[in-house]
Amino acid sequence: MEYKLKDTSSKTAFDYGFLLSKIYPYIKPVMGRAVLNLLIAIPLGLLDGVIALSLKPYLDFVVNGSPDKVWNFMGYTIHLQSWLAFVIPFGIVGFALFQGVLKYVCNYLTDWTGNKVSNSLKIDLFKKLTSLDSKFYDINSSGLVLSRFLTDPETASKNVINILKSLISSAFGMLGLVAVLLYNSWQLAIIGVVVMGIAITPVSIIRKRIKKVSNATMVVIGDMTTTFNETFSGNKIMTAYNLQNVQNNKFDEQINEQFRLTMSLTKRVGWMSPIMYFVCSIGVALVMAYGNHLILTGEMTAGSFASFVTSLLLLYKPTKTLGNDLANLQTTFVAMSRVFELFDLEPQIDSGSKILSGLNDSIEFKGVNFEYEQGVPVLKNFNLKVKKNETIALVGNSGGGKSTVVSLLPRFYDVTSGSIEFDGVNIKDYDVKSLRDNISFVFQDNFMFSGTIRENILLGNPNASEDELEEVIKLAHLDEFINSMEKGLDTVLGERGTTLSGGQRQRVAIARAMIKKTPIVILDEATSALDNESEAIVQKALNNLMENKTVFVIAHRLSTISNADRIAVIHDGELAELGTHDELMSSEAKGFYKKLYEMQFKSQESYVEV
What we know:
- The protein is an alpha/beta fold.
- It contains 23 helices and 14 strands.
- It has a six-stranded mixed beta sheet, with helices on both faces. It has a four-stranded antiparallel beta sheet with strand order 4-3-6-7, with helices on one face.
- Strand 3 and strand 4 form a beta hairpin.
- Helix 4 packs antiparallel against helix 6 and helix 6 (142-184) packs antiparallel against helix 12 (302-320).
């Protein structure tokens, strides 16, 4: 299964049996209520014919004054005409009340089971989403992911019970009405049913058209969600570069495309209702013409005819809207097909079985080659050995492969060829979770989750004690800042931590990395976005984090590399130079670092205390 979500095309959208078998495990836990719901739909549908059936005796015996029948019951004389005149109207009210109660119970059970199925499906899909690799998030937009993992399950699962209920209710309603037709006149019933069959014939020709438009509409909705997310997350860039019109135009195009698709679906489906109205009206006209003949010849009473016509109109009503109903049904199955395609996505990082419990000797890159896109190498025959508790700085021009090197250590991606070994064991042989449990990250832009400062720090180790928490707060130089907050550690952060300054976010991230207590630390340009004052405080916190750790530092600041044991210069995906600052600045060196130093680092010397 390809990671690119737009490549999916709902191939199983017409395989209803397959899709229902796929969703059955989610319906099974609520099967009791689902079955009860479907059983209630049977009398709910059958009751549609009660009013039509009651018209025959009411018109024949009450309105038209047919010969009155008299019964003696326990000394009382009961006139059929008077009794029916009293019972039928109140009976209709009683049946309507009973049908209303059934409808309420049915709707409640439909919503209850639909939401339960939807929630279970969303939970499993979210687990699937969190199991996928970094590559998946690289190549899919946030809007498309939200649409496929959140909107599609809602469309697919919440409607499936409702559709089954509606189908059963309609089917039994139609059976009941056909029975009323046959009861009143089998001759007219044949005419009515044949016409209805002709009316629904065009339905079969629009299925594929509905599938195509439904799929395209869902893609556009995903693009619109992406635009919303980008506008929200990138609002400062949008404002700074006056991109409001660009975003407005993009959204206008997406809205217009959605409108075009909606109208395309209307054109493909909407013509069915007028045709069905026309065909059904022919059926009614034929019934009225032949019914008049039957009445005049005495083969049918006026009450039977009124009952028949009412039943026929009730029978034709769902037929006239069948096109729209089918569109909704097919949209549900398209969404269901798209949902179950997601379950075919599998992580491309296979977990090993060995448990990593610390680093004893070294980490070694052996002939590592890597490419994000096939045929576009990022790392080429990269070799590097880092000893335990050594700090190595990775420097080089932007795009040279520094971040890729550290991304391969926790297996965000797997090497294309070659190997990375911890203590002589290929990292692919280690259990992925245990591997990542031994590595802490501090990024340039550290993500803060919704919640409090305490919760964000404890993400590194949810089982940490209060003493351990206080210790890392001091070591990360957060204590003064936290003490100045009214709620201290329980201060709620804004979304993505926007209520904190850059330096404060970095120190929270450092505390989070500290409390994890891992033997390996990766610092990915952790101070490059800070001013000099913030950098000085963060550097002190980093020094505490790096103590007695094996550290990989991606550096753009001289202050960051000054504490490194060795410096690895990466140029165009290759290890160009390796050594200490003095060694790389000597005349024997190749000159890559010296040139980089002159361009990037020398001007920073006056700001750095070595």
